[in-house]
């Protein structure tokens, strides 16, 4: 079973959605047969590439929120995250900036076999420690923690080797109907928008598993019993070579 999740690294609902998806897969009895693939859906093109701004300022300018409104909204997300085992989860007292380079880093890490590990690490660095994941230095530190070679990572990012891949992943999300993040597609059959709770994700996993796995059929004592990949001969029936 293949699950694709598109996200923006500074989106608080994306970090929470990633956590919930991880928990759902862990609780799913067939979780070892689930492949989770993270993909990029950058939403920060309007932010400058050479500096960061506070979340308070960004929300005021982008959405026209008052101090009370943004306090209420962000503190609610932080409280939900805390209840679900993500603590600290820093939203309001954080910085935002252009995430294009961060997404290129994630694409490079994915190419090196570190897709889930890299996304988990960048969410933890940003929301767990309020690290500015927008610049090269912090991304190179994350690369080393993931076991990636620092010089090769620097070269890939400096040459913008994965810029087109990030654009392509965002285009694919929009083609599939995404209008925001997070956006989840399960086995190409179901699409879910927003940070669905763990129970909902687990229900969908069960539903999808039951729809896609062949069932065992037994029609009587003398009938063959067929399961995935083979059929057992009825009891007492000789095997003819």
Report the order of strands and helices: EHEEHHEHHHHHEEHEE
Shape: globular
Q: Counting H and I runs of at least 4 residues, what is the number of helices?
A: 9
Strand order of the largest sheet: 2-1-5-6
The quaternary structure here is: single chain
Number of self-contained structural domains = 1
- Quote the CATH topology: Glutaredoxin
Give the termini distance in whole angstroms. 37 Å
Walkthrough of the structure:
The chain contains 9 helices and 8 strands. The chain is of the alpha+beta class and 241 residues long. The protein has one domain (2-211): Glutaredoxin. The strands form 3 sheets. It has a 4-stranded mixed β-sheet with strand order 2-1-5-6, sandwiched between helices. A two-stranded antiparallel sheet has the order 3-4. The relative contact order is 0.17.
List key phrases describing it.
alpha+beta; Glutaredoxin; four-stranded mixed sheet; two-stranded antiparallel sheet; 12% strand; disordered C terminus
Summarize this entry quickly:
With 241 residues, the protein is α+β, with helices and mostly antiparallel strands.
